[in-house]
């Protein structure tokens, strides 16, 4: 069992989080979003149980601007 | 001449032999599209005039011996996420009402270069963010969804509006509609087909690829679509083979893994029976069937959502703040929720994804591992319009989105190529498929396996009566 689960967000918390990223949503939208946000946070928290060690994320960034550049 | 039961390969042979003209072929397809549109609504735009103009040009070219290749003069469609110069790219969204493409996307440029006749742009679930394509109907039963997000392409290819089409696949959006509409769908390896000029859903999961009525047709399409493109940061410079070479070499000795976990846990009984029968046919054709346990299955959906949601929200950041009210409700909610995922969660999902990729690579180690995984493409046939969830035999419920994406997302997370091929008809006479997942850039291998299975069945002799 993962010990580091976020508390279930309330609609007010959802509205506050949205405001923090400059996304203006009214109370009605916050109430609609709350179950989805809660579900997504649960999914994200479930990944905390994976032992990742020093593994790096898979990214597609390439430092060369074009093929053949040094 | 009626051409609806011809494959692209067969039509191309008749064009070469002068037994069929691109003009007649295009007129025939456009006629079927217009006849079917009241029932299917597969298209955002049908490009009648452009298509006929191209058909006339190709007719002259072919008659004068300038055959460009197997797609020359062949009617195809493109998903309306792909830019085509001079036409709107709506992504089936009101948000894009003022969006016109100034240049061709890489895939459209490649199709035009191959002499294909583009007959129109097909509906997608809004911005490819869903699996039902609510604008469009399933040609096998219009009371059911066509799947998505490339639902328009799946529906029109199945209903013989054109011979093949382009789709995109972030969590199954080529393979789900292909399976639910009874056609072949190929999600290539990540980086195999350029996404330049294609509206993104999730940069790290997006793939572009073909839907077609036969495996060989999908191979021909991929041969045209694939290739390196420096404009797409994910594009990989790997040579493009002739994917039809060796496609009929059979599968004797091919090591095929059948998962003992994940895929068969929650499935419709009819669909499961059809998939199991297909696996037995592969065994009878000489494949070595091995039971395999897939790695880290408990993380797949969390990583899929953990990557797709924030990436999609980043893409839509500006328009969500300017035009939120004109997004469809489901897409708006996903976009708003994705804004709230912390960067640390996103990075964790990327790291878990790397571990998943390593686990699959170990499973498919050349020489000692399996050559491919075979699994059901979908856990059930097409959901009915308005249906929100499936109830599985054990009484549990799962939303239709999670059910379909669950079966597709392993190939998106790993970037491995995956092809779906029809494997029969479940309840209500609705089609389903098996998917074959291969090693990175081993599209030729999965095409060979799919072709071997297809040659043992007669599913493609059936066509929907729209």
Tell me the layout of helices and strands.
The complex is a heterodimer of chains A (70) and B (466).
Chain A: H1 11-20, H2 27-46
Chain B: H1 8-17, H2 22-40, E1 43-46, H3 48-63, E2 75-79, H4 106-113, E3 117-122, H5 151-158, E4 164-169, H6 175-181, E5 184-187, E6 207-212, H7 215-225, E7 255-259, H8 269-284, E8 288-292, H9 300-315, H10 317-323, H11 329-338, H12 343-363, E9 372-376, E10 389-391, E11 397-399, H13 400-414, E12 418-426, E13 430-438, H14 443-455
Parallel strand pairs in B: 2-3, 2-4, 7-8, 7-9
Antiparallel strand pairs in B: 1-3, 4-6, 5-6, 5-12, 9-13, 10-11, 12-13
Helix pairs in contact in B: 2-3, 5-6, 7-14, 9-11, 9-12, 9-13
Rough shape of chain B? globular
Number of strands of chain A: 0
Work out the helix count of chain B.
14
- The domain count of chain B comes to 1
Oligomer: heterodimer
Q: What portion of residues of chain A belong to β-strands?
A: under 5%
Q: Can you summarize the main beta sheet of chain A?
A: none
Assign an overall shape of chain A. Answer: elongated
Helix content of chain A: 40-55%
Q: Runs of chain A with pLDDT <50, length 5+? A: none
> Which secondary-structure class do the elements of chain A indicate?
mainly alpha
Q: Main β-sheet of chain B: number of strands, strand sense, barrel status?
A: 11 strands, mixed
The SSE string of chain A, one letter per element, is: HH
> Which consecutive residue ranges of chain B, at least 5 long each, have pLDDT under 50?
none
Question: Which pair of chains forms the biggest interface, and how many residues does each contribute?
Answer: A-B, 31 and 37 residues
